[in-house]
Amino acid sequence: MRKDHFRNIAIIAHVDHGKTTLVDQMLRQSGVFGERETLEDRVMDSMDQEKERGITIAAKNTAVFFNDIKINIIDTPGHADFGGEVERGLSMVDGALLLVDASEGPLPQTRFVLRKALALKLPIILVINKIDRKDARCEEVLNEVYDLFIDLGADEHQIDFPVIYTIARDGVAHAALGDSSTDLKPLFETIIGRIPGPEGDDEGTPQFLVTNLDYDSYIGQVALGRMWNGKLETAKTVALCRPGESPKPVRLTALFTFYGLTKKPEEVAEAGDIIAIAGVEGVSIGDTLTSLEDPKPLPGITVDEPTVSMNFYVNTSPFAGRDGKYLTTRHLRARLEQEAFRNVSIKVEDTDRADSFRVSGRGELQLGVLVESMRREGYELAVSKPTIITKEIDGVLMEPVERVFFDIPEEYMGVVTEKMAKRKGKMENMKHSGTGRLTVEYTCATRGIIGFRGQFLTDTRGLGVMNSLFEGYREWAGTFRHRFNGVLVADRMGTSNSYAHLAMEDRGELFIQVGTEVYEGMIVGENNRDHDLDVNITKEKKLTNMRSSNSDQTIVLKVPRTLSLDEAIEFIADDELVEVTPKVFRMRKMELNQDKRAQLNKTRDKDEQIMAM
Ligand SMILES: Nc1nc2c(ncn2[C@@H]2O[C@H](COP(=O)(O)OP(=O)(O)OP(=O)(O)O)[C@@H](O)[C@H]2O)c(=O)[nH]1
Ligand SMILES: [Mg+2]
Fold this sequence. Notes:
- This protein is α+β, with helices and mostly antiparallel strands.
- The chain contains 16 helices and 35 strands.
- The strands form 7 sheets. It has an 8-stranded antiparallel sheet, with no helix packed on it. Strands 2-3-1-4-5-6-7 form a 7-stranded mixed sheet, sandwiched between helices.
- Strand 23 (391-393) and strand 24 (396-409) form a beta hairpin.
- The longest helix has 19 residues, at 594-612.
- The termini are far apart.
- Guanosine-5'-triphosphate is lined by residues 13, 15-21, 42, 55-56, 77-79, 129-130, 132-133, 167-169.
């Protein structure tokens, strides 16, 4: 039975193409807010890190009404690292709005999300957004999107998509460029007209598939998903089914449907709607809630495999425990397990060390966001450099490969070519845009891309754009260096001073301010040379007489290079860690003791020599 009073849609796009901004306007124009209510911009980006980073990290649900039809909307993230959120979001809906920036056109993540939507046979509405941009090129972009559909093997029916032109920021949608529309009505009408209502049988066996877990400060732990069939009622006992386990009776304490930014308590939830439930202990993603008498579980949820992993350690630095609340292995384990539980695209495993866990995800940003969340919650920890996850297929060692897209001013082609060659990248395509810019496409081992983004932005003075898309697994490309310079390492505990800072200026570039407390093994700067150097950054100037101390006053020190936490994680090498506490982060050698480190280096050099023979 088609339930025509519902529509379930997801909004998908490459990062920054305007999804969340469009949802703002859909909320405003559908009357779920009072006239006077002020809405902050991108209100769905409600997490602190989403606001700070200006990107969506977690998919979120909302619902609006148009002509008495309830439209459940899922706003998804556009950054590739959060692709798992898109996959889960798409599994709940009957159609998708594919947003494409009117100037940038389809970009790598447009391809990823469209491929996922097409595989689920979802009808698509193309929304060409930001048509107010001076450099908008709607017609070309439309053609590029057609090409993309064809390239992805879309069938005729799918290619016959409607096109809407929008200025999401102003809340205007046009069915045809230049028509007189002043609001989003054409978009709402197209959603109602072109995306079918959900199929579902209210009289059938209830089937609610848990697709997302969320924490609500009022309600506590909630499970989100779609009612595929039947009805659910509060205070009734139902069966919780998990693939591979026998059904378990559970009682629902509360049911909610979505309405604007709120969850509305309901007695009954009907087939076809997207709902949230509370009160079911231990519920996890992929579970089905169904009838106890005649359980009909749905197949669980699968998302793409993780490609990158990082080790999380208990903080063992000499400064451990100074500002954190949660310090122990037990704390770390509990928090990481909670993360894997809430987010199926993250996996947590034990390692051969009791105080460390291997955490795997889709990319370094996803893992970086987790580290940042943990420090804000009061955890102390240390993390290693992100490494890629290799696989053995038919006895051959395989590694993940990305397709990397650069959009750069022509003059930076040289430096990009050189850097990509060092990373064993292979140029696949190059196009002149005719405006002094180049688009260049490479395939490159994921290993080569980790830690490259920061470098690339510096190399192109912030004028380059870099995007990458997971391509698949290829044969291991052999070893190459990740960082070409060594580091300056503090050789003792103490406080850095201006005299020692000045003395370091010829050696390399410092990362710390004068007056920073350091410990033996802590990284204080980048060496100009390719090896590590132990330095005394606490060394005081011996005062020989009064005059020389006067000359101290004229010292002008170079400003140290400050790295963000993300940049520090990108920067460190295999034998280094980033120590993270709620207040600070520091880079350090894994082995703090300089004698032991020297010994390790000797053994490693010898191994390398043997390997080279
Ligand atoms: N000129 C112009 N800018 C827009 C328009 N719509 C959105 N923007 C801007 O584009 C930027 C990104 O908007 P978001 O809504 O955060 O994009 P998003 O697709 O949700 O981004 P992610 O969720 O991180 O993938 C913001 O600075 C918006 O103000 C538009 O129609 N015209
Ligand atoms: Mg967004």
